[in-house]
Amino acid sequence: MSAITLRQLEIFAQAVEFGSFRKCAERIGVSPVAISDHIRALEAGLGQQLFLRQSGGPARLTVEGEAAYQRTVTILNEVNQLLWQFSDVRKVGKRKIRIGGHPFILRNTQKVFEDFAREHPSVHIDLDLDSLAPEIIQQRIQERTLDIGYHFAFAQAANQAPGVLCHEPLAVYVGYEHPLARQTIVNIEELQRTPAIHLSPRNYLRALIDLALSKVGLVDGLLALQSDDYGMILSTARRNQGFICMFAAAQHDVVADGLVCLTLEKPLPPLLVRQVLPTSWRNDALLSELIERVSEAIRQGDSGY
Questions:
Q1: Signal peptide position in this chain (predicted)?
Q2: For 9-21, what is each residue's pLDDT tens digit?
């Protein structure tokens, strides 16, 4: 029997509570593949299948999964009580490093944070994954309520501009049965006649994606949906009601959800991933070490544009 970890139990409980692996991944800032890997490892350790597998559907528990979930909740509650009981002792002398950024930017950083916390037990890493807008990140860095910030920007500046870590290419997706899915190359005029499935205007990524689309001639097109509900966006596309513009690095997961990545006659310009740091970060050995390791993990997740 394989060893069962507390992290596996936490992921299992969160997947049940959020209703799907994908929603769980979005909320805690990891990839859906990482969620699946933790669940499979837990199932191997228990020797039982916990979920009924169905692509793109809700996370439905087996009978054994229901029993395991009830026991897991009890275990996690007991662990939380233990930590709470000794929290005053445990947190004495702990330094908090606060990191904010879009969860997609930080999708490959979980192991970095886990390793860093293990190597530096006197440090507590506090993550804010609420897709903070650039101006909010900058303000919080200046106010010293955030130590490291990451955000997307439009790729107008040169690659060597301060704070640029890497490119994040964009792609366009439609449902399998959409007429454009059968075309080898899609021209912009055809896409212009197709309704768009967009993020809401209040999401700072919406303006960046609109700008990228405008650079290839897609402006003021039809709208099928504006929403920040990822599940609703995917289901609308699966029903062939329009196209989605999102990250090319998500292609594997998006295709698994029943969508097709289109090849456009004019490639979309990428977004940039920018890093925002306090002016004194080079004088802080711990912060400098963490910045270097997180930056490397983010660059490794670059799609190679």
A1: none
A2: 988 888 887 788 8
DSSP state letters, 246-278: EEGGGHHHHHHTTEEE--BSSPPPPEEEEEE--
One domain, residues 212 and 254:
yes
Same domain, residue pair 250 and 264: yes
Mean pLDDT lowest for which of 16-30, 64-78, 86-100, 102-116? 86-100
First to last CA, the chain: 43
CATH code at position 260: 3.40.190.290
**Residue 271 dihedral angles phi and psi, to the nearest 5°:** -90, 160
Contacts of 84 (CB under 8 A, 6+ apart): none
H-helix or E-strand spanning residue 67: helix 63-85
In which band, very low, low, confident or very high, does the pLDDT at 302 lie, cut at 50, 70 and 90? low
Please indicate, yes or no, whether residues 150 and 279 belong to a single structural domain of this protein.
yes
d(CA 38, CA 8): 5
Q: 75 is in which domain, residue-wise?
A: 1-88
Half-sphere exposure of 229 (CA within 13 A, CB side): 8
**Of 178 and 305, which is predicted with more confidence?**
178
Query: Does one domain contain both 142 and 179?
Result: no
Are both 156 and 296 inside the same structural domain?
yes
User: What's the mean pLDDT in 45-74?
Assistant: 83
Q: How confident is the model at residue 132 (pLDDT cuts 50, 70, 90)?
A: confident
Torsion of CA 107, 61, 64, 82, to 10 degrees: 50
Does residue 275 come out as left (phi exceeding 0), alpha (psi in the -120 to 50 range) or beta?
beta
Q: What is the pLDDT of residue 33?
A: 84
